[in-house]
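User: Structure please.
Assistant: Input sequence and predicted structure:
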Amino acid sequence: MTVEEINQLHKKQQGYIAKTGIRITDLAEGHAKGRVVLDASCNNPMDYVHGGCLFTLADTVAGHAAMTYGGVVTTSSAEIHYLNPAKDTEYIEAEANVIRNGRTISLFDVMIRDDKGTEICKLILTYFKIGEQ
């Protein structure tokens, strides 16, 4: 699938990803980038971007990168390290890169940055391949 086809699919679906507004901006084998434009609904009570929003972006982008090897995947584990709060930013952007792609398990490194390039959080995500596309 191309970046355009993926984003069109997200728009047509009524699932969770469609509701988040996440857009995939770059896709190649073992790599993906994506972003979400923020509004007040993305914030926690202290007016920072909610950790769940950050995780959702990372998981979505890395999941797409994992699927570039063919097949459907599901998240099997994740580790997140919050580095800086995300506040007063128009968007957040995630970049996912493969660490290892195995027969059934893939491991990805993800960095999320704000619109100024500040590193917000670092994640390692593991995906299990569950079937063909």
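Residues 96 and 110 are 4 Å apart (CA to CA).
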